[in-house]
Amino acid sequence: MTRPWSRRxxxxxxxxxxxxxxxxxxxxxxxxxxxxxxSLETPPSHTRNVVMxxxxxxxEQASGxxxxxxxxxxxxxxxxxxxxxxxxxxQIEMGMPGTFSLTGVIPDADFIQLPVLYGxxxxxxxxxxxxxxxxxxxxxxxxxxNAHVLGPWLDLGFFNWYSTSKPLNSYDDLKGMKIRxxxxxxxxxxxQFMGAIPNTTPLPNVPLAxxxxxxxxxxxxxxxxASGQFWESGxxxxxxDHQFVGEYVPMVRLAFWQKLPAELQTLLAELWRANIATYxxxxxxxxxxxxxxxxxxxxxxxTPNAEELxxxxxxxxxxxxxxxxxSRISPELVAAVANEAS
Length: 342
Prior knowledge:
This protein is of the alpha/beta class. The chain has two domains: about 10-20 and about 30-155 and about 245-290, Bacterial extracellular solute-binding protein, family 7 (D-Maltodextrin-Binding Protein, domain 2, 3-Layer(aba) Sandwich); about 160-245 and about 295-340, 3-Layer(aba) Sandwich (D-Maltodextrin-Binding Protein, domain 2). Helices cover about 45% and strands about 15% of the residues. The protein is built from 13 helices and eleven strands. It has helices spanning about 5-15, 45-60, 80-90, 120-130, 130-145, 185-195, 205-210, 220-225, 255-260, 260-295, 305-315, 320-325, 330-340; strands at about 35-40, 65-70, 95, 145-150, 155-165, 180, 195-200, 215-220, 235-250, 250-255, 300. The chain has a six-stranded mixed beta sheet with strand order 7-6-8-5-9-11, with helices on both faces. A five-stranded mixed beta sheet has the order 2-1-3-10-4, sandwiched between helices. The two termini are about 25 Å apart.
């Protein structure tokens, strides 16, 4: 079993190169290095950023100086909602947006929101996203965004409900609340299904909006709450239903990818695949630590039991075809998800 890395181990490992000789590439003499700019909207303390710093450090060293990397954090360049467009227009070479940030261009990216996946365990969700369903979406990303998917997706972690002043002891407590989500028709539908009012706000604007009462709560993960210190913006309660797992898709601008010699393409892909299991384990560990941190800062967490989750999933399944139609998810992808989730 792969052991999660601590943040300190991640930072230290950024200077470490995978030892496999096949991944080592000699420097190209006096040639100028190729610049790989990566944009993330999350702050430097977020584990996604820690993962990306580690990966980019490995790329620089293993490429023998042929690739130089730059990481832009906290939405310095683009919020995740604009990363797809930035890749398409050549303003960056790499991004790792959430699937929820891609739905405006690729509706099928919302398949994680299908009711059949509500409250499912992570192993089953990995079987879906690493299988045919994930490949179908990867093909669309390449066709529509001119971006190459580097490899398996990175778990952000499970998303839950959070609120400021109103305790969340049951699903009924969500009724009438204005809830922020990070995009996509699926999250908006689920919010309405619970009797709440959906709102979409970019992550960098969330703390101020919470403080000003623009919305009453949000759908996000423990790690995002902790890294953003959302308790300082008023978050006090959580209903931990694991409604879906957030997934980041590592992608490289296709024009940049195609300029790389074959050995550098192999290097980038193999470095990612060689470390994805550890990266995922570290993200899960970060979510567990973040949960404890949230509780330590006064956030009360209520967790529905397995029977409640199953009952809510069954109730939502009656509307799965409607959700797919509303989200414009293709019948082919709905069928692939249903088959892999069985």
